Every structure is written in structure tokens, then in C-alpha cells.
Amino acid sequence: MKDYQTAFPDRYELLKAFAHENRQNATLAEQVLWEHIRKKQLGVQFTRQHIIGDYIADFMAPDIRLIVEVDGGYHAEREQAEDDVIRTLNLNAMGFNVIRFTNEDVMYDIENVVEVLKKYINDYV
Predict the structure, then answer these.
(1) Domain of residue 40, residue span
(2) Where are the alpha helices (H) located in the chain, listed in sequence order?
(3) 111-121 tens-digit pLDDT
(4) Pairing mode of beta strands 47-52, 55-61
(5) In this structure, what CATH number is given to the domain that contains residue 49?
(6) pTM for the whole structure
(7) What is the model's pLDDT at position 1?
(8) 51: in domain
(9) How far apart, in whole angstroms, are the C-alpha atoms of residue 20 and residue 71?
(10) Angle in degrees, CA 85, 91, 95, rounded to 5
(11) pLDDT of residue 21 exceeding 70
């Protein structure tokens, strides 16, 4: 049984539809990262576009309560950056750790991104 909260029922179906659409239309950076973390390549199972509370996490490893977000350029805008801080605090309050990477991190330094994730996973286990 899941020990994390899903969305309120009146929002769940809408979030579920958004998550499905996001999986079908993943950004290039999300696709690149997925190819490196899927099928337990790092020793843990990740899911894509997973609903947690009223959020949709880009990637989640439920067994270790890790959320990985891949942030596009608009995340640097002041209002979005403030929203991201609130989102991270709320997810932390639900018991999740959040690691954020930029699109550029993933696209131009995937080896380092994978190493950061491996270190986190190894430290967790």
C-alpha cells in the first residue's frame, strides 16, 4: 500500500489526464534522463509523471521517497522559482526528498546527473 498522499478525488482525474499527456509529450531532457534511470538501471524503480498530493513529479523512486525534477528555462523566472520552493517544501513535508536538475544539466552533463543520483541512492541504501 502507498504511504504517500494522492490528490483529492475532485482533482485526481484532471491530474491523471495531465500526467498521461506529460508522459506522451515528454521534453527532450526528460526523455534523455528516463533512458538512464528506467528499468532499475540505478538499482531502484523510477516512475514518470507520478501524482503526489496535488503535484505531478517528473520522476519518482517510491521505495526511497525521491523525486527528481527536470526544470526548463521558465523555472528561472521569479514567480516560478518561488512556486518551486513552495512545491519542494510541500513535498518535503510529505516525506520526499527532491533533487532538481536543469534541462541543460541533463542534456550536456548527463554523466554528472547520473552520478548525483547514484550517490543519493547509495547513501540512502
Answers:
(1) 9-124
(2) 9-24, 28-37, 78-93, 103-108, 110-124
(3) 999 999 999 99
(4) antiparallel
(5) 3.40.960.10
(6) 0.86
(7) 38
(8) yes
(9) 19
(10) 135
(11) yes
